[in-house]
Specification:
Layout: H1 6-39, H2 42-48, E1 51-53, E2 56-57, E3 68-71, H3 101-107, H4 110-126, E4 131-132, H5 156-171, E5 176-182, E6 195-197, H6 200-207, H7 209-216, E7 222-225, E8 229-230, E9 233-234, H8 239-249, E10 255-258, H9 266-271, H10 280-285, H11 312-319, H12 325-341, H13 357-370, E11 372-376, E12 390-394, H14 419-427, E13 432-436, H15 449-460, E14 464-470, H16 501-511, E15 515-520, E16 536-541, H17 547-555, H18 577-580, E17 590-592, H19 601-604, E18 624-634, E19 637-646, E20 652-662, E21 673-682, E22 687-694, E23 700-703, E24 708-711, E25 715-723, E26 726-734
Parallel strand pairs: 3-4, 4-5, 5-7, 6-8, 6-17, 7-10, 12-13, 12-14, 14-15, 15-16
Antiparallel strand pairs: 1-2, 2-3, 8-9, 11-16, 18-19, 19-22, 20-21, 20-25, 23-24, 25-26
Helix pairs in contact: 1-12, 2-12, 3-13, 4-5, 4-13, 5-7, 13-17, 14-17, 15-16
The structure holds alpha-D-glucopyranose.
Alpha-D-glucopyranose is lined by residues 72, 133, 180, 259-260, 408.
């Protein structure tokens, strides 16, 4: 082999050398870490495994070990709190406000996930942060969860693909991501006390895969333990989750960081995998700490931070032999590993960029690719801007800025283009644009007849009306805003449109059928009151600082929409499996996921419950033809290919989704499962052949009895579609 291909020999030698280099480098780092630990006192070790301020943990100055500096959040570096819990004034903390997680997921574009993470990592680095506390990837089990806007999807495969890109983007900037919240934090109601129960199959097939991919494919440096209990013990120090699965089966070598105040026991945190305790000061401040916080010698502590579970109490337990110091050493080792991996000790970190134009372009791109066109009857969209002379923009959400809302994921945006601003910028002086508030944002507020009349008057005089409604964030985390439907620590009461929006929408549609409905927010609403009468409906999520520009470009056709729903929009709350079978928000502090694996389309498609808009759904201004599905095998891999053509007149992108169905299954399985997808950009008339590579994971289910992944022999139907319910090609293959 080598004689005939000398270059081959050079390549192989080089690869082997590089591999030896990296193995050598790792062992050198491990040696350095062990040498450092040998020099540290117990006090110094303990100082590293708990907070010493709101978002920092201790270093060891004499040994050149810096503090660890963390910051939220998943879609932008949070406003600056310094070392306390009050927003600093005059800080240099107005940065890039990216579209929220569900907008990113709706792009179905892992490359954008990487770009998104790169922006976040670069801005966090500029702000002096070592860890950015994102992405949030909890499964969207119920549309009512207040934090769905931060998360990605109901499907673990889509979550995995988007999260890995995001994490690599952050960490290639030389800082750490922190994937959260591990695990089963799927609601905000009673989030810090509820106990979650679910089948092992649901855990393995739905709730863990995103985290497993983050660890094994994304090499994420840290992971955040969640507030809730799991099968009876707090997730942040849950032996099964942290020791057996995360650090055992998955081989995680990074840092388990608690959520802020999610540690409840010294011995459990030490023995069950918590490496860094954060946020217990919040509990101590509000005196909600559980009685197990030891205050040795009954001396009033000089600071909250000494009262942390992994502070003085931990020192006492090592000293009296209750726990081995080696358990503390492992936590310190993990933190030092993260520090070495991100050049915190060598100090060779490159500078970050803040508010770069390129960052704002990424925010725009994600919004353009994440906004979803849900309905376009009679091709009312796009609106030709030369065709309209008067445009009525209606709705408080058309002028509302969202960046500082939502809780810990808040961002002080350098700027935020609202829908009205975006429309004005694009239209310029080509048309007369009116604005009417339409509705008041106030919890419990019903229809405001005066506002409706004003909106109707404007709409009836306009060539086209654009009615921007939907859910709302709060304005500011510090000033609790009771109007926050999409926010941390709250869940929505139902799917009903608040503030009398239904009455407004019906009245405006009646006054002008050429009205486009734009829905903002973290997820579906019950739109049955007017959906039939609306010709154009757009889902715009919280599209970030460039969101208004992206929305305007889509409405007026400068951008061809390509977003796809990352979770099902059900017709009504009663259709949601978590509502129907699942127990939500729980009974006496216990919530059992009785729906098991039947979450989202896995439920609706199996039980034939028609959603308002299905998983993976989104329209385009052009048309695509998908043909010639074929399958080839090589070893145990299957290669499924199709041709896709843009048969329309506009350039556009389609997301081809590959679902797998087991024919004549002998076990309980969902009707279909997403096992691959790709976003294809095509010019008018262009054709591409797309090939999907399917390995064992595409066919596996988790065998609870055998405690292992298994494959049923027999026939499988491979379905390729542009939503879970619109299958364009299918074929059979055997495994
Ligand atoms: C919050 C959130 C978590 C956030 C942390 C720090 O309670 O659950 O996502 O990163 O505390 O603000």
């Amino acid at each position: 082999m080598f004689k005939r291909y000398p270059t081959f020999k050079v390549v192989v030698t080089a690869l082997l050398f590089m591999q030896q280099l990296s193995v050598h480098a790792q062992s050198t780092t491990e040696t350095k870490i062990n040498n450092l630990i040998k020099k540290m006192t117990l006090q110094e070790k303990i100082g590293m495994i708990h907070a010493n301020s709101s978002f920092t943990s201790g270093g060891v100055k004499r040994l050149g070990i810096p503090e660890l500096v963390m910051s939220d959040g998943p879609h932008g570096v949070r406003v600056e709190y310094g070392r306390g819990w009050t927003v600093l004034q005059d800080a240099d903390d107005s940065g890039t406000y990216l579209p929220t997680g569900n907008t990113l997921a709706a792009t179905w574009n892992p490359k954008l996930g990487y770009a998104y993470g790169s922006v976040l990592g670069s801005e966090a680095k500029y702000r002096g942060k070592d860890i950015i506390l994102g992405p949030g990837i909890n499964i969207i089990r119920t549309p009512l969860n207040g934090r769905n806007f931060e998360y990605f999807s109901e499907d673990p495969y889509l979550i995995s693909k988007m999260a890995v890109g995001y994490i690599k983007g952050v960490q290639d900037q030389g800082i750490s991501a922190c994937v959260k919240h591990f695990a089963a934090n799927n609601q905000e109601i009673n989030r810090d006390v509820i106990n979650v129960e679910m089948s092992e199959r649901a855990l393995r097939e739905l709730y863990l895969p995103g985290f497993k991919a983050a660890v094994q494919k994304g090499q994420v440096n840290s992971i955040m333990g969640s507030y809730n209990k799991f099968r009876g013990s707090f997730a942040t120090h849950n032996a099964y989750l942290m020791n057996d699965i995360l650090k055992g089966e998955w081989g995680f070598k990074g840092v388990v960081i608690s959520d802020w105040g999610s540690v409840h026991s010294t011995i459990q945190a030490i023995e069950n995998g918590t490496d860094l305790e954060m946020g217990t000061d919040l509990r101590l401040m509000y005196n909600t700490v559980s009685q197990t916080t030891a205050t040795t010698n009954n001396v009033t502590k000089k600071s909250y931070y000494d009262q942390f579970f992994l502070a003085d109490s931990a020192i006492a337990m090592v000293k009296d032999g209750t726990v081995k110091e080696s358990l503390i050493d492992d936590k310190v080792r993990r933190i030092l590993r993260l520090m070495y991996k991100t050049n915190m000790i060598s100090g060779k970190r490159t500078p970050g960029i803040y508010n770069g134009k390129a960052h704002q372009q990424v925010a725009l791109r994600v919004a353009e690719e994440g906004i979803v066109l849900l309905k376009n009857s009679n091709n009312i969209l796009p609106i030709g801007k030369e065709r309209v002379k008067t445009i009525a923009v209606i709705g408080e959400n058309a002028v509302r800025e969202n960046a500082m809302g939502g809780g810990s994921s808040q961002v002080k945006a350098k700027y935020e283009i609202t829908p009205l601003q975006g429309i004005k910028t694009l239209i310029g002086s080509n048309a007369n644009i009116s604005f009417a508030q339409g509705y008041k944002i106030a919890r419990g507020q019903g229809p405001d007849q005066a506002l409706i009349e004003e909106a109707v008057k404007n709409a009836s005089k306009a060539d086209v009306a654009i009615l921007v409604c939907g859910w709302t964030h709060g304005y500011d985390y510090n000033k609790w805003d009771d109007n926050a439907y999409d926010a941390e620590a709250v869940d929505k009461p139902n799917m009903d449109m608040p503030f009398g929006q239904n009455e407004l929408i019906k009245a405006v549609l009646k006054a002008n059928p050429n009205t486009i409905i734009v829905l903002m927010g973290g997820g579906p609403m019950d739109i049955s009151a007017w959906e039939n009468d609306a010709k154009g409906i757009i889902q715009a999520w919280y599209p970030g600082m460039e969101g208004g520009n992206a929305l305007a470009k889509i409405i007026f056709g400068e951008v061809n929409p390509s977003g796809k729903l990352p979770y099902t929009f059900p017709k009504k709350l009663a259709d949601v499996p978590a509502e129907k079978f699942g127990e939500y928000p729980g009974i006496n502090g216990n919530v059992e996921y009785k729906e098991g694996i039947f979450v989202g389309y896995r439920y609706y498609d199996t039980y034939k419950v028609e959603p308002q808009f299905p998983f993976g759904f989104g329209l385009s201004y052009t048309k695509f033809e998908v043909k010639n599905a074929k399958v080839n095998s090589a070893g145990n891999k299957k290669y499924v290919s199709v041709n896709i053509k843009n048969s329309g007149k506009l350039a556009g992108a389609e997301v081809l989704q590959l679902y797998v169905h087991k024919m004549d299954t002998k076990i309980t399985r969902a009707e279909k499962e997403l096992k691959s997808f790709t976003k294809v950009f095509l010019k008018p008339g262009e054709t591409k052949m797309i090939t999907f590579a399917l390995d064992d994971s595409a066919f596996q289910y988790y065998d609870e009895a055998g405690k292992k992944w298994a494959i049923e022999a027999g026939q499988y139907k491979i379905m390729i579609g542009n939503s879970s319910q619109n299958i364009l090609q299918s074929l059979l293959l055997s495994r």
